[in-house]
Amino acid sequence: MSEQIKQQVKAFYDRLMNDYDVNNSHSGIDGERVAKRLTALAELGMTEDGGCRRVSFSQEEKRAKELVKQWMEEDGLAVTVDGAGNVFGRVEGKVDGPVVMSGSHLDSVMHGGHFDGPLGVISALEVASAWRDTDEKPHIPYEVVVFTDEEGARFNGGLLGSQSVVGELDLEEEKKRVDFNGTPFEDVLANVDLTPEGFIEAKRDLSQVKAFVEVHIEQGKQLEKRNLPVGVVTGIAGPTWLKVSFKGVAGHAGNTPMNDRTDALVAASEFVTNVKDFPVQVSESGVATVGKLEVEPNGVNVIPGEVTLTVDIRDIKEEWKNEITSRIKEYAKTVSEQHGTAVEIEENMNVSPVQVPDKMQQQAGEAVQETLGLEPFYLPSGAGHDAMILGRYVPMAMLFTQSLDGVSHNPKEWSSLNDCVQTIYVLKRFVEKIGEES
């Protein structure tokens, strides 16, 4: 480890602890332990600029899982690892039955931060540590889970671990993938002692999972604007991706009069400018983004003959997302007619959103009130998570922790230790409430 990285690791821990209120450590929850564990994970993938490079199926991710397994064993959890490399730490309950599961992932994007994923794992583990330190037991079994490959940086996919658990993985399609180095899927797995067949064998009996709860940084600014440590997620938006192509007539920029042009870029520009207006007509949680645009022939002195762009549309309810999508498609046709261009629209992706059940939202809100004395704040998740995959099959909930400036997938990603610990109190009470129903 270089001296620069050693300094970054130390700076990370010091920053966590410098403004931490030690009065937040009580009832078995230990903020200093949380800081040490977050720092130990940060060290495994720390870059010289303070970011994180711990991509899926790397030795860094493998070592991070081994470290969490060690902590689980030290805390008395029964540890198992499935064929997809997902790690589970089980605490037996006062009575037997389906488990309450909580956790997240340890892999990162290519150049990310140290909270997206690890905070969910450490939060779930801290709940079990607190029970141990106070000689408590949950009413029903509890499992801490570390999912494999949530981010998908290795194969430009993601969520492989959670998809394996629910039995959704299309193994034949995955076998066709190569990573960013051109290494085939099976060879990448072999480097971390996994096999493709293991991902199929990882399927769980989901009748034995009572609920899944995931803690995650917000990836937005709503909590920060309200000075709240934690929020209750109402649903996870599923994306629809539209490929929209406006086709005009390419021509010489100097010799084609302005009144005799069919400029595809002018039409596309009007479309792009107004796409933002459609989500707010339908819901408060909907969004639409044009993030990619290709111009042909793309010459300085040539009128654009064709423009192809993508629209990423998301909302937490299927009917809302479908309505936004429908309005945007109709608008593309209207713009095309007005400018005399042709338009082609393809739907390249359509992932269904997942709602957090009302009862789970209610219990999470009650946990916020009971532990922190705050009125719960409810907000949607615009990004996908392992909870989205589990939520198709079992009751699911998410808690968001305040994130500085809403930054995510970036070395500047940061959540204060005070906010992290307060979220853990909410998580602990929440999973206890779920278990007490049994």
UniProtKB/TrEMBL annotation:
Keywords annotated in UniProt: Hydrolase, Manganese, Metal-binding
Top-level taxon: Bacteria
Cofactor dependence: Mn(2+)
GO terms of molecular function: allantoate deiminase activity
Xref: InterPro entries: Amidase_Cbmase (IPR010158), Bact_exopeptidase_dim_dom (IPR036264), Peptidase_M20 (IPR002933), Peptidase_M20_dimer (IPR011650)
Domain Peptidase M20 dimerisation: 237-338
Annotated family: Belongs to the peptidase M20 family.
NCBIfam families assigned to the protein according to its UniProt record, in alphabetical order: hydantase, PRK09290.1-5
Name this protein carries in UniProt: Allantoate deiminase
